[in-house]
């Protein structure tokens, strides 16, 4: 249920004096998924109704899920009695989908469209996934454009068609940053060899540059964790993830590391 639909239903219920029916509908469900809760800002009647609905469902041990474009503590125009309840659950920050997820979504869209997953089609989906990295709506839009052009032009769905149809997307991309460029720049900055970073060496003077390179590749390319593992001597993807997360954590408090990362990235660009 969207917040707008919830509000509209409530207004209608008040006008028709059928609020009991409205409450029975929402307070006896097993799961309430409430979308865009930020839009109830400045709507006291809706806020009151949602507050009481929340309490009834919570006390009945039902599942309640809210989505918002901001975390609970940053919502404006919504009373603390509601935001505190939003915050007592498990807040989850939904980021843009990773490369593997984007490919899986595109394959699912192709299957739903009854498109056979031939090698050409899979290569095309991979190309789209590599270039459309913002969100699922943009990903689906790019797929729809390529599919529609294939149907209208009677052209097979392949990489050449995708490049032609999605010229605006491909042309607006900045100069490609490759893992090779990142590794060479990091190695030069720290005074180590690229081959050392790719080796099994674990000394601090090699391990730290390796972790920085892994972080930058993860942040600025579309390489998956397994692909990155191959770039560093065939390391397991869990090792790559650990290296990445270690730098992420240190960046939260280490100003010197922040400066180092910014300097290296500027050199890469």
Task: Give a description of the structure.
With 269 residues, the protein is mostly helical. It folds into three domains: 3-87, 3-Layer(aba) Sandwich (Rossmann fold), CATH 3.40.50.300; 99-172, Helicase, Ruva Protein, domain 3; 179-268, DnaA protein, C-terminal DNA-binding domain (Chromosomal Replication Initiator Protein Dnaa, Chain: A, Orthogonal Bundle). The chain has helices spanning 3-15, 19-26, 44-59, 80-87, 99-112, 119-131, 136-153, 159-165, 167-172, 179-190, 194-198, 204-220, 225-231, 237-251, 255-268; strands spanning 31-34, 63-66. A two-stranded parallel ribbon has the order 1-2. α5 (99-112) packs across α7 (136-153), α10 crosses α15 and α13 (225-231) crosses α14. The longest helix is centred in the middle third of the chain and has 18 residues, at 136-153.
Helix coverage percent:
55-70%
The helix-and-strand class reads mainly alpha
Radius of gyration (CA) equals: 25 Å
Mean pLDDT: 90
Compute the separation of the termini in Å: 44 Å
> Could you name the CATH homologous superfamily of the largest domain?
DnaA protein, C-terminal DNA-binding domain
Largest sheet: 2 strands, parallel
Shape: extended
Q: Estimate the strand proportion.
A: under 5%
Number of beta strands: 2
**Order of helices and strands, N to C?**
HHEHEHHHHHHHHHHHH
How many domains? The number is 3
What's the number of helices?
15
- Main CATH class of the largest domain: Mainly Alpha
Overall CATH architecture of the largest domain: Orthogonal Bundle
| Uncertain residue ranges | none
> Looking across the biggest beta sheet, what order are the strands in?
1-2
CATH fold-type name of the largest domain: Chromosomal Replication Initiator Protein Dnaa, Chain: A
């Amino acid at each position: 249920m969207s917040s707008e639909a919830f509000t509209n239903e409530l207004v209608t219920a008040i006008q028709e004096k059928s609020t009991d029916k409205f409450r029975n509908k929402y307070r006896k469900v097993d799961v309430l998924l409430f979308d865009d809760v930020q839009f109830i800002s400045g709507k006291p009647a809706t806020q009151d109704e949602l507050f009481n609905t929340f309490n009834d469902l919570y006390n009945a041990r039902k599942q309640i899920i809210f989505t918002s474009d901001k975390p609970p503590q940053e919502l404006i125009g919504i009373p603390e009695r509601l935001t505190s309840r939003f915050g007592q659950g498990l807040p989850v920050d939904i980021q843009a989908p990773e490369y593997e997820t984007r490919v899986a979504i595109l394959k699912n869209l192709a299957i739903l469209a009854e498109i056979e997953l031939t090698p050409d089609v899979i290569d095309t989906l991979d190309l789209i996934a590599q270039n459309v990295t913002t969100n699922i709506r943009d990903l689906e839009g790019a797929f729809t454009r390529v599919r529609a052009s294939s149907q209208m032009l009677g052209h097979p769905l392949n990489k050449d068609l995708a490049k032609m149809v999605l010229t605006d997307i491909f042309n607006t991309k900045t100069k490609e940053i490759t893992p090779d460029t990142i590794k060479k720049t990091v190695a030069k900055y720290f005074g180590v060899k690229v081959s050392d970073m790719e080796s099994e060496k674990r000394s601090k003077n090699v391990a730290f540059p390796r972790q920085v390179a892994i972080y930058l590749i993860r942040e600025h390319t579309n390489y998956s964790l397994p692909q990155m593992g191959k770039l560093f001597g065939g390391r397991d993807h869990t090792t790559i993830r650990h290296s990445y997360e270690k730098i992420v954590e240190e960046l939260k408090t280490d100003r010197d590391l922040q400066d180092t990362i910014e300097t290296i990235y500027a050199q890469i660009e």
